[in-house]
UniProtKB/TrEMBL annotation, chain A:
<dbReference type="GO" id="GO:0016740">
    <property type="term" value="F:transferase activity"/>
</dbReference>
<protein>
    <submittedName>
        <fullName>Formyltransferase</fullName>
    </submittedName>
</protein>
<keyword id="KW-0808">Transferase</keyword>
UniProtKB/TrEMBL annotation, chain B:
<dbReference type="GO" id="GO:0015948">
    <property type="term" value="P:methanogenesis"/>
</dbReference>
<dbReference type="InterPro" id="IPR017550">
    <property type="entry name" value="Formylmethanofuran_DH_suC"/>
</dbReference>
<protein>
    <submittedName>
        <fullName>Formylmethanofuran dehydrogenase subunit C</fullName>
    </submittedName>
</protein>
<dbReference type="InterPro" id="IPR036485">
    <property type="entry name" value="Glu_synth_asu_C_sf"/>
</dbReference>
<dbReference type="GO" id="GO:0018493">
    <property type="term" value="F:formylmethanofuran dehydrogenase activity"/>
</dbReference>
<dbReference type="GO" id="GO:0046914">
    <property type="term" value="F:transition metal ion binding"/>
</dbReference>
Length: 363, 264
């Protein structure tokens, strides 16, 4: 069995019918999680448009730390592959880069193309735990924390802060590098820290080349941002309650909406693993899960795992792009979440065939 | 005086544009048809409020809750008096007039407000006088007075105007472009990324390493500011009359901002 209602195994069709009924009867539904292949995320946006739901990815907080900085001041970024090919200096900010696996690869080789070709590669760490197996130079962030340290480094690099300082050497190295890369996790340094970091990178580009390398989240957030951009022209926290996509990162935070009693139904989409929010057990919820147990929500429907049960477009962190992930040699045959979501939309549209005309998008 | 009495708020309601001038030309039946719902029901003013309109320049909102968003947004003249709490974006983009709230406000109060005065008797949420996601600026010339505590990032990316609060959380004055913030106490790391602007706080949390002390100051401009504050917030004016220690920052960015705190 791959479908459950109130923890009881049922036929999939009965569960889809129950899910359609739950969403169709809701005044303010939310579609959250969105930890899934691009086709399923697209189907979720289409369903949200049809039922007037809002959307919020599991990656929301981490994603918006970077999107906020990007929207405020822009960013100069690069990819892991370009870093490996061109960087003669890599600065790892905080703890997250040390668990990415990329630093070990970067330590093992040197830039092979571009203006730094043939130079050795220096690995530097600011505020991270380091790794005894990887040769690097470590600078402690200090009591003030990582965002404050990024600001101090920026002041030193630009010459606005002078005098002897433990970071003075780090600032000089960044200025002297031919192709520098700063690796960071937006969730770790926050929106203000990310904006300051982008400012540091831009300041460095006055004298040399330097780029930011944001580490993606684990829940397809970057892919969701792209689907949202081409579907609505905005970030992923949008709501279709008024018939057009309204972007509001505060209002459409699903956890906030659940806590304040603003949503009366939810659909949690996680064909790939994502932590189930606590509100899934209090708000009437339909869960589409790649690895279901059956008791996660009121209605649970098992769906195929993308890149295993079927080929799918997923975020590829190393390429920093959507990329095709082929199916296993012997696929399981479990249905894609996109098919279930399209089925839900068809059932709900058939029951209430008067769609709202779409007006222009909000700013 | 016109009055809107809230009967129920089954979802967040958007009161942008519900100003004294906008409803002055409407009959109660016409005003009742204004759509204020944010969900698929298309709720109207009449669905949620009992209306009494007399065309006056003062609009009173009674029984307000934190589900009322954008109260006073776009106000150009007249007065809106709120009895209760409000949600996000109080007075967003207003250019004139007065908005008063007897309770507390949600996030982004006074965002992009160019003129007029906003008074919140209670507390304010995060980014009061701050910028929305991707917006050019927060408070942009208006006056925002908060009787209680403001959340984090008070005056975030504000460009002009004055904010007075009893206290604020961390990162008060973050990314400030210009303008003035006066508070009895602010949290850690005030002025993170501020370019210009003035912060005055009797007490503050940890200062950033990119703020440097520039000595004790007894500046005429602070006395002038105190004088201008007398009518708005007398307790804030008293704060400015003491000799001040000045810090310059944020040297991570332009570094033309300043933080004043009383000596001693």
């Amino acid at each position: 069995m791959t479908a459950w209602i109130d923890g009881q195994a049922v036929e999939r069709d009965a569960a889809v019918a129950a899910a359609a009924s739950l969403l169709a009867g809701a005044h303010a539904p939310v579609i959250a999680g969105l930890c899934a292949e691009a086709a399923a995320v697209q189907a979720a946006f289409d369903l949200a448009r049809a039922v007037g739901a809002s959307l919020d990815p599991a990656a929301g907080a981490a994603l918006y730390a970077d999107l906020g900085a990007l929207a405020s001041g822009g960013a100069m970024t690069t990819t892991a592959a370009e870093t490996r090919g061109r960087a003669d200096l890599v600065l790892a900010l905080g703890a997250a880069p040390w668990s990415s696996g990329l630093l070990a690869e970067l330590a093992a080789d040197a830039p092979g193309r571009g203006r730094a070709a043939g130079q050795p590669r220096a690995l530097l760490a600011l505020g991270g735990p380091g790794d005894g197996g990887i040769q690097h130079v470590s600078y402690p962030a200090g009591e003030a924390g990582l965002p404050a340290a990024i600001g101090l480094l920026r002041g030193l690099v630009a010459g606005r802060v002078a005098g002897p300082h433990p970071f003075a050497d780090l600032a000089a190295r960044l200025r002297a590098a031919l192709y520098g890369v700063v690796m960071y996790d937006p969730a770790e340094i926050g929106a203000l820290g990310a904006e300051m970091l982008n400012g540091l990178v831009k300041d460095l580009n006055e004298v040399t080349r330097c780029f930011a390398l944001p580490l993606g989240d684990a829940h397809q957030g970057r892919a969701v941002a792209q689907v949202s951009a081409w579907s609505t022209g905005q970030g992923p926290r949008v709501g279709f309650g008024r018939g057009y996509p309204e972007h509001d990162p505060w209002r459409f935070d699903a956890a906030r909406q659940a806590a304040s009693g603003e949503i009366d139904a939810a659909l949690w989409l996680a064909s790939l693993p994502a932590p189930l929010p606590s509100w899934a057990r209090t708000v009437p919820t339909v869960a589409l899960l790649g690895a279901p147990k059956g008791d996660e929500a009121r209605v649970v429907i098992g769906v195929g795992v993308p890149g295993e049960a079927f080929g799918a477009a997923l975020w590829h962190p190393r390429r920093a792009a959507l990329a095709w992930h082929a199916a296993d040699p012997v696929p399981s045959g479990a249905p894609p979440a996109a098919a279930i979501l399209a089925d839900l939309r068809a059932r709900i549209s058939a029951a209430s065939p008067a769609p709202q005309p779409e007006r222009s998008a909000s700013c | 005086m016109s009055t809107l009495t809230l009967r129920e708020a089954p979802e967040r309601l958007d009161l942008a544009g519900v100003t004294p001038a906008a409803v002055a030309g409407l009959s109660e039946a016409e005003a009742a048809r204004l759509v204020i719902g944010t969900g698929r029901r298309g709720l109207t003013l009449g669905d949620c409020f009992a209306l009494h309109l007399d065309g006056s320049e003062e609009l009173r909102i009674v029984g307000a809750t934190d589900r009322l968003d954008r109260v006073g947004a776009g106000l150009a003249a007249g007065r809106i008096v709120v009895e209760g709490d409000v949600g996000q974006r109080l007075g967003a983009g207003m250019t004139g007039g007065i908005v008063t709230v007897s309770g507390s406000a949600g996030p982004f109060a006074g965002t992009a407000a160019k003129g007029g005065t906003i008074r919140i008797a209670g507390h304010a949420g995060e980014s009061a006088g701050g910028a929305l996601h991707g917006a050019d600026c927060g408070l942009d010339g208006a006056t925002l007075v908060i009787g209680g505590m403001a959340g984090e990032r008070l005056g975030d990316r504000m460009r002009a105007g004055l904010i007075v609060a009893k206290g604020a959380g961390d990162h008060a004055g973050s990314r400030m472009i210009a303008g003035t913030i006066v508070a009895e106490a602010v949290g850690d790391h005030p002025g993170y990324g501020m370019r210009r602007g003035t912060l005055v706080a009797a007490r503050h949390g940890a200062l950033l390493p990119t703020f440097v002390e520039t000595g004790r100051q007894d500046l005429v401009v602070l006395r002038l500011l105190a004088k201008s504050l007398e009518g708005v917030a007398p307790e804030a004016a008293a704060l400015l009359r003491a000799p001040q220690r000045r810090y310059s920052g944020d040297l991570a960015t332009l570094g033309k901002g300043e933080l004043f705190t009383p000596v001693g």
